[in-house]
Structures are given as structure tokens and as C-alpha cells.
Design goal:
Layout lengths: L2 E3 L2 H12 L5 H5 L11 E5 L4 E4 L8 E5 L5 E8 L2 E5 L5 E5 L3 E2 L3 E4 L7 E5 L8 E6 L3 E8 L2 E6 L2 E6 L3 E2 L9
Antiparallel strand pairs: 1-4, 2-5, 2-8, 3-4, 5-6, 6-7, 9-12, 9-15, 10-11, 12-13, 13-14
Length: about 180
């Protein structure tokens, strides 16, 4: 789903991340970090090829590669110009800061695989349904308020319940 794993390297990377857990803890425990931005925060990937490393240097092995520009990730720590990110599936690794964008995106999440999320004409559950989105659809987040987010994507534009998205915090306002 937007990323490719390198077999045993991913297992090794997970072990190394545990060993490197101390890197960035000071940043995670404070409201801001090296960049001066809050931790945690959501960002998105700038490119269709983003290396995720086991640690915050180019000397660390590439654990996997994200292959989907616009995919949302959560910054969980910072170390110099490196950002530890977590994806919607819970995988974590280190990405160079220039591969990330402040552009907000989100992934549609569902309780069951076959379920579709209604996209409404307005931030009202009684408004007309403009589309139904599958789990895994990535959308640009334009605005969030009062439990609803306006999202746009390829062939859709509408309002979705905020709880159906991974990439915005519960109750977060996005302008």
C-alpha cells in the first residue's frame, strides 16, 4: 500500500530502531523539536521514492521505500535534519527532512475492509452523499472543524467524518 519492504532488512531495521530508541526522545517529550515545529505532527511525502532508514543518518541501511507521493505520515521525533515518521500501518523509520511536505493529506480508514466511507456535500450527515470512498484512499485535507473534514482527490470533493481519516488528530482544526 504505497511502500515496498526489503524482506529481512525490515526485520533488522525494526531491531535497530528499538536499539536507537533513545535518539530523539528529548524531542518527543517536548512540544517542539529541532525544527521548532510541534511533535508529533502530520506531514506528507513529497516524492514517489522516499527511503526510510533504520536510523537518522545516510550510513544507516534503507529499511524500505515509500512509493506514493502525498502519503500522510506522522513525525514522532527529530534528530538534526532527520525525522522519525510513522505511517498509518504503524511502521516507523527515519526520513530526511527535505522528503517531507507540510501539505496535509489523510488516508481513509474503515472498521471492515468492504465498507465504504460516505463523502457528503456538506459537513452534515443528512446532506447528500457525493461519493463513497474505499479504505486506503489518500485525499488532500482542505479544512477540518467540528468533527468533519473537507477532502479533495482525483474525482472527488466533499466532507467526511474526521474519525474516518488517518492523518488528522481527533478534534484537530485544519484551516
Amino acid at each position: 500500500m504505497g511502500w515496498v519492504r526489503f524482506g529481512a532488512v525490515a526485520v533488522l531495521a525494526a531491531a535497530m530502531l528499538g536499539a536507537l530508541g533513545g535518539i530523539g526522545h528529548a524531542a518527543k517529550d517536548s512540544p517542539t523539536a529541532t525544527s521548532g515545529l510541534p511533535i508529533p505532527r502530520y506531514v506528507s511525502l513529497k516524492s514517489d521514492h522516499v527511503n526510510v532508514r533504520a536510523g537518522p543518518t545516510k550510513d544507516n541501511d534503507v529499511a524500505w521505500v515509500y512509493t506514493r507521493a502525498g502519503l500522510p505520515v506522522e513525525v514522532t521525533a527529530e534528530f538534526e535534519n532527520w525525522r522519525r515518521v510513522r505511517d498509518s500501518e504503524g511502521s516507523e523509520g527515519w526520513v530526511y527532512h527535505s522528503m517531507l511536505s507540510g501539505r496535509r493529506t489523510a488516508v481513509v480508514t474503515m472498521k471492515s475492509k468492504g465498507e465504504l466511507a460516505p463523502l457528503h456535500d456538506s459537513a452534515d450527515p443528512t446532506s447528500a452523499v457525493a461519493a463513497r470512498l474505499q479504505a486506503g484512499v489518500v485525499a488532500q485535507v482542505k479544512k477540518c472543524a467540528n468533527g468533519w473534514c473537507r477532502v479533495i482527490g482525483s474525482g472527488f470533493d466533499g466532507w467526511i467524518e474526521q474519525q474516518r481519516l488517518w492523518g488528522v488528530y481527533e478534534g484537530e482544526k485544519v484551516e
